[in-house]
Amino acid sequence: MNLEEVLNFRRAVRAFDPNKPIAPEKVKHCLELAALAPTSSNMQLWEVYQITQPELMAEISRACLGQTATATAQEIVVFVTRQDLYRQRAKAVLEFERGNIRRNSPPERQAKRIKDRELYYGKLMPFLYARFFGLLGLFRVLLAKAIGLFRPIMREVSECDMRVTVNKSCALAAQTFMIAMANEGYDTCPLEGFDSRLIKKLLKLPRRVGINMVIPCGIRDGNKGIWGERGRVPFPEIYHRI
Fold this sequence. Notes:
Blueprint: H1 3-9, H2 24-34, E1 46-51, H3 54-63, H4 68-71, E2 75-81, H5 86-104, H6 107-129, H7 135-148, H8 159-183, E3 187-188, H9 196-202, E4 210-218, H10 235-238
Antiparallel strand pairs: 1-2, 2-4, 3-4
């Protein structure tokens, strides 16, 4: 399929055929493709869990309020936000950027570019993603407002804003995964109705981890899993050419 065909094929499928298994290695490859999705400042503050064990899938389905999509899925994929790893990820990206600059930048520009990345990933990213009962976020907001009196600046820097940023980046990966799955002829259904605390307990995740999306996977069971035609707001209502 070409891209347009893939996007038209992808639907939120809520019932999967139990007699049509999917290949775990193909799902894993789709997750590898999802890792190519862009993330804010390349921080990649997300992880993914591919669940294939029937017993755990049944528990995850219960945590998803017993929805048909999880109850009939061949596999379940859980996308998780990891803002708690911001220092580790910033350090890893900085190490990559040092080598990337040395390999690909003109020699006369390397020192300045490396210094810029060291400031960005060594100081700015840890400052932006750090959390402390909302107080650090409040300080960042006040600082941004003060600087914004004199020049344009990013203003969404509260602790809640940064949590939104992490979830947006994770959602880009989840969407890329679903498109890759559609290209394989596999179906998915993004879910946000779940008990996040229970899922974290089942996956043995730290308390500060966020559950971004649960995606049951399989092959659609005829037309039972699709609720009729695809409904969308008329395009002229959402499109603005300036």
